[in-house]
Amino acid sequence: MPEQSKVGRPAFAWRRPLVHLILAVGGLVMVFPFVYQLLATFMTNTQITSVPPTLWPTSWSFDNYLGVFDRIPFGRQLLNSVIITVANTIATVLLSALGGYAFARMRFRGRGFLFGLVLSMLMVPGTLLLIPQYQTVQAFGWVDTLTGVVVPGIVNAFGIFLMRQVFLGLPDELEEAARLDGANPFQIFWRIMLPLAKPGLSALAILTVIATWSALLWPLVVINSQGQMPLSVGLASFTGEHGSEYPSMLAASLMAMLPIFVFFILMQRRVIEGVAFSGLKG
Prior knowledge:
Blueprint: H1 2-11, H2 15-40, H3 45-48, H4 63-71, H5 74-105, H6 111-121, H7 130-139, H8 146-150, H9 157-168, H10 172-180, H11 185-196, H12 198-213, H13 217-222, H14 231-234, E1 239-240, E2 243-244, H15 246-266, H16 268-281
Antiparallel strand pairs: 1-2
Helix pairs in contact: 4-15, 5-9, 5-12, 6-9, 10-11, 12-16
């Protein structure tokens, strides 16, 4: 065996540099759009649309960043995005945990049929639900309000399915011991099972934060006034009938990405674990 390894090692020694080279090229390809976006925020609209394209700005000015505040109420829309994301994440995680626990641990008539209905919602394209959702929100008088953006999305079929799988993986002995100690079903859920389901809750919360922050279609349908828009919709106002202000749009996009980028840096390990966890459970 040692002789084989001595003979085989030089034959495959070229693999490691080749793998590093492929990874480096792949990394550069992935990073290039963000680097170009950063450079383009210092260009003029003429430079960005010129042929052949310009990769380096001729002058360095922050006018495009300052112009964002003149074009849209950036601070107000940033606050709207934060409110929508936080409210939607808390409500989604809580309702998904309750639904998942009921389907995993409680015995009631029609449980399998109801869970089948929940799973069937995963197969329905979201665009088919736009009109009935809008009519419902309109009936409640929530058009052009943050409530109308948040409420229709808090019942998440994927979240219920994910949390059901998490609660199914917890041992039955804990639940039986708590029941013998006199705990009622809600105390068992809140004090025993929910703390043990933290990895699943973190995964669902992280995925919900990322999806809600970048959501565009539903807020675009419900919200009409700029003061109620989240940042994802406010960025669309940089596109006009007679042309688009690309430098300001890219600067606003970069500023809108900053909070979620900081969130990713602070929660990097959790984000990766959450995506991997949801993939394994799904």
